[in-house]
Amino acid sequence: MDLKSQKVKLNDGHFIPVLGFGTAAPEEVSKSEALEVTKFAIEVGFRHLDCAHVYRNEEQVGQAIRSKIADGTVKREDIFYTSKLWCTFFRPDLVQPALEKSLKDLQLDYVDLYLIHFPVAMKPGEELLPKDENGKMILDSVDLCRTWEALEKCKDAGLTKSIGVSNFNHKQLEKILNKPGLKYKPVCNQVECHPYLNQSKLLDFCKSHDIVLVAYSALGSQRIKGWVNLNHPVLLEDPVLCAIAKKHKQTPALVALRYQIQRGVVVLAKSYNRKRIKENIQVFDFELSPEDMKAIDGINRNIRYSEMLFGVGHPEYPFSEEY
Ligand SMILES: NC(=O)c1ccc[n+]([C@@H]2O[C@H](COP(=O)([O-])OP(=O)(O)OC[C@H]3O[C@@H](n4cnc5c(N)ncnc54)[C@H](OP(=O)(O)O)[C@@H]3O)[C@@H](O)[C@H]2O)c1
Fold first, then answer.
1. How far apart are CA 219 and CA 253, in angstroms?
2. pLDDT exceeds cutoff 60 at 240
3. What is the DSSP letter of 194?
4. Does 117 show up as a binding residue in the annotation?
5. Which of 17, 40, 238, 274 gives 20 to 30 Å between its CA and that of 23?
6. Are strands 7-9 and 15-17 parallel, antiparallel or unpaired?
């Protein structure tokens, strides 16, 4: 088997590659970089690309995909592209136009996966982060089940192959799963997940419902000021990860990525550095022992780098629940 194309079957019959390329970058990084690094990621073998409207780079990522199709490197069906519905578009009538806007930016006919990005609705409008005069985020109240029904319609319309959620806790997943008249289950829940927040309870819950857990910030996040609590320790400097990496003659980053794949988690890795992009695809070239896996399980400390504090107080703020 060609491990680089290793995929997992989703509950709707489609397949998702177990390693994905994260495209989010801080605002100061030029958008043309997104084009160049995404092309490079496809060249070295990434087939799963994770993006979102709110990253403001779908135009460049779409251009990269189309250029790699045009030069014969890949076909559209080789690529698994994920986009996400931002929080200002949760009202049901805004969902399909939001996906259509992403497709227009991408210049693609469909996305492979469309996710509800974060379960806290925000005031609709031009602003992606609508704030009041005191700088406080203006939130909105939308029943997530109604948003989900609008996503189901997008799937039926062929605009996305699969639909899922992101940053949902198990109660919010249950709410969707128990919704009367549910047509499609979420195929995945994309959440922060790494050895310091290993999400073992949420993972068990997802597995029991045939929902794939997709790990973001699997390398410990980009530690972007204002978004991440910088008092938390740096994951890739963890002594246990470093010792296991040394033993396998690999890097702590590769150990952190491999850990997820071996526990049945689809993992994203963001890098805008060519050497590290190339390195990350080497995750298929070695294996962790059961003892290594156990040791990594042992360093969990429930550290969440991205607490998305702007949503605290909203009834759907997801991180007040244990899992
Ligand atoms: N659904 C959500 O709410 C959500 C939230 C956050 C992220 N995401 C998605 O998940 C993706 C990944 O998460 P993330 O952006 O938090 O970053 P991450 O994957 O945890 O990566 C963190 C940092 O690690 C560095 N890195 C990459 N490969 C490395 C290696 N081999 N050795 C050492 N350092 C390495 C990268 O810096 P360099 O670029 O300098 O290499 C990167 O900034 C995002 O891009 C986005 O697509 C989704």
1. 6
2. yes
3. B
4. yes
5. 238
6. antiparallel
Answer whether 0.85 is exceeded by the pTM: yes
Mutation probe of ligand 1 site: the residue of 19, 23, 271, 282 with most atoms within 8 A of C-beta? 271
pLDDT band at 241 (very low <50, low <70, confident <90, very high): very high
Closest CA to 298 of 222, 241, 258, 236: 241
Question: Which ligand 1 atom sits closest to the C-alpha of 194?
Answer: 20
Residue 213: both structure tokens together? 């857990």
Nearest CA owner, ligand 1 atom 41:
271
The CA 269 to ligand 1 mean position distance, Å, reads: 5
Spatial CB neighbours of 284, under 8 Å, sequence gap ≥ 6: 3, 4, 6, 19
Ligand 1 contacts CB of residue 83 (under 6 A): no
Ligand 1 within 6 A of CB of 229: no
Domains of the chain are 3-309 (3.20.20.100)
Band of pLDDT at residue 5, cut at 50, 70 and 90? low
Report the length, in residues, of the chain.
323
